[in-house]
């Protein structure tokens, strides 16, 4: 299985609309490791790692998000897989 790691920034109306909690649920369904947190500029930041196809599916989910969200932009940065995650966590605000 080929692994992939992505560092994702999602902007728009993505805070306060269950975006992180829903993303955590989706990441766990896809058996991805990583984390999510809100940034002070209103974006949500993710790092996800796992099977390449599952990471791709997660990125596609981020483009839509929750019914209350309004995704305006998504930035994806590829990173080297390091296998550091046992699960997918929600972190407090990232400063």
Notable traits:
95 residues, alpha+beta, Alpha-Beta Plaits, 5-stranded mixed sheet, 2 helices, globular
Descriptive report:
The N and C termini lie far apart (35 Å). This protein is of the alpha+beta class. The protein contains 2 helices and 5 strands; from the N terminus they run βαββαββ.
Ordered list of secondary-structure elements with their pairings:
Elements lengths: L2 E11 L5 H11 L3 E6 L5 E8 H11 L7 E10 L8 E3 L5
Parallel strand pairs: 2-5
Antiparallel strand pairs: 1-3, 1-4, 2-3
Give a brief rundown of this model:
With 95 residues, this protein is α+β, with helices and mostly antiparallel strands. 23% of the residues lie in helices and 40% in strands. The chain has a single domain, classed as Alpha-Beta Plaits.
User: Topology as H/E string?
Assistant: EHEEHEE
Strands side by side in the biggest sheet = 4-1-3-2-5
> CATH top level?
Alpha Beta
**DSSP strand content:** 35-45%
Q: How many domains is the backbone divided into?
A: 1
């Amino acid at each position: 299985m080929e692994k992939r790691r992505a560092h994702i920034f999602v902007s728009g109306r993505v805070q306060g609309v269950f975006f992180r909690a829903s993303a955590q649920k989706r990441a766990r369904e896809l058996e991805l490791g990583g984390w999510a947190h809100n940034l002070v500029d209103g974006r949500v930041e993710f790092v996800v790692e796992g099977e390449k196809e599952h990471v791709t599916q997660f990125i596609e989910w981020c483009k839509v998000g929750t019914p209350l969200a309004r995704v305006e932009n998504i930035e994806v940065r590829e990173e080297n897989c390091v296998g550091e995650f046992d699960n997918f966590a929600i972190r407090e605000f990232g400063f």
